[in-house]
Amino acid sequence: MRPRIIRENSGLALLLPTLLIMALFSIFPLVEGIRLSFTDANLLNRGARGVGLANYGKLLADPVFWSSLWHSLVLTGAAVTLQLVLGMILALALKQELPGIRFFRSVIMASWVIPVAATAVMFTFMVEPGYGYVNIVLRLLGIKANSFWFGDLNAAFPFMVLLHLWRNVPFYGIAFLAAMQAIPHSLYEAAEIDGAGPLHSFFSITVPGCRNMIIVMVTIHVLWTFNNFDMVYLTTGGGPVYATEVLPVYLYQQSWISYTIGYASSIGTVMFVLLMIYFIIYIRIYQRQQG
Amino acid sequence: MRRIHGVMIFLIAVLLMGSTAAAFAGGKAEGGGAKGSLSFWNMPFVTQEVSPDYVKQWVANVKTALPDYNVDNFFGPGDYGPQRDKYLVQAQSGSPDVIEGLLEDTAVYVQKGDIEPLDSYFNAWADKSQFVPATLAPLTINGHLYGIPYNTNARGLIYRKDILDQYNLSVPKTWSDLIATAQAITKATNKQMWGLFLCTKVGDPRAPQEFISWWFQVGGGKPMFTLSGGQKTYNPTVDQLAQILTLYGQAFTGDNPAANPDERGNGWPSEDPGYASGKWAMAPEGPWLWGRRKDDPTAQKILDSSIVTALPMPDGGQAGTYLEVKPIMMNHYAKDKAGAWKLIQFITSKENMGNWMASSGGIPARTDSLDLPVFQGPLGNWIKMFAALLPQAHAQEPVNWGPVSDANMRAVNFVIYGQKSPQDAAQWLHDTVQGLVTGGQI
Description:
Chain A is mainly alpha-helical. Helices cover about 75% and strands about 0% of the residues of chain A.
């Protein structure tokens, strides 16, 4: 018979290694990042002194920060909403038993599997004037276009949204398909007998049936898109002018071009707080609905 | 339950024995004391800026030249940005022992104390006199030499002689000539070929180098920053900056623009292949373009009919251009500095430097490397055209150029996208960089 103290705390003991690793790799960097945001830490200078809220004061007066924040919010909102809608449409299409659909289902995830760096390089070539695939297709369609689209002040940002869609919509499609396949077919049959049309069935059976998957997908993609750095950095670097500057890229520039770690940390802290607010609201709504 | 405990104890025992055995094995290899180890981060070896055949040969040669060392054949992240970032974070670990980089990197590493002054090593080296003094000067910071130069070049204007001859155009000598000549080519070819290309992408490494070339002309060869007693002074006036920004504005405007407006916001990945495929007739370029001859017969034909000359000057300006110097540096925290120096000597020896530059189309920083047979013939002539520009070339000062280059290109973007007038963009740029100076960020 083991002593009571061991018996009662064995669960905690088993969790301890995981908690320690999380503390080391998640909580410590987080706390350290917040601490640095109150200092004038610079990678090129040894030591850092506390500056109180000076970095946050600077943020408030920094127009690039505000435009980056706006771009991050718009990019996240537009990309996640469109991914959700297009992903649902794709899942409905994949659900159909059409010739070659099995093959299509197998290859559709390719865009999600390709590394982001490769995707960025590929798209950079695709939007080149002259030999770029996008321009060639547009010309074939009779549209007189030959721009470097990532260098176009009006088109660069929509192209960034497009890049997210190209990569993520198949993932949404496959995830929603999995959720749809778990919905009992008898529900659709019953709805049909009761006279419900396809649209009614979709909103009354399919969407509620996919609800948990929608919550998961939206939650992780809000996080991923808001924090996404590589797509923007590798394609436009935040330009032209500041047209595609988003918070992660601005943070990177402050950290690794200006080396102003303290100021960069304050941007990171703001991002963290915004995402926490989003999650708290989201989880509250979810729990209320569950309740 | 007892069985599970037994299995777990067994697994832990196996892991412990394994790690102990590995430690002993490691100790034996080290105790055997056969060889030391050295690491060298070097972007061109990773990106194939230098041919893979040269790298293969280099790896074989270093084994013979440094028999007491194992030189790691991992040459770093393969991109100057990540290479610099990683080095800044990990230099204190002692790895890599030797690092190649940009001149701009040297200033940053010196500021952080991450690289070793090489004066004593270099002064005792018999080959010292072979190095071009102009390439050593920018690597001498606060009176100490912080890198051995291996690659140098001056930015020049490359142009299609066949095209200029075809349309009876003269080689442009001034900025207004440049714009007029380029516009004439755009018009004569009905926009099938554009007269000029300029890099304007934010974050592009070459775009700020072109910008600084124009500055050296407008500023009469004066550095952008004067460093004195720990103080940094920003030299350009708003009017001088406006003059440069006007050039960019003019290049992309008009009925027959000098440069393709659809290429605004593009950088070197378009500049080089675009020139080699005949998309534009003139561009500020360096000797690396030679490597494009291998692309296809068209590129070879175009480059064979190309001439390199000095960059056109503004009216009342002075000849000047950007001098690129790439150094090989030693980690201040290298555990075996004598070994690291031997590796630097190997890298910058007459043959190795010469063959490297011949492979990548650069100008060696050693005069005797140019005597190698590989520099005779067409490549030699090509190199000589750029080498002729070295006397008017200026190196950048040892400051943190990152935020300055970023601001320069944002200002260019403001103008070419019509967001601000050259004067307003110049004022913005001046205020921004002055703010960086005041804030101690450079």
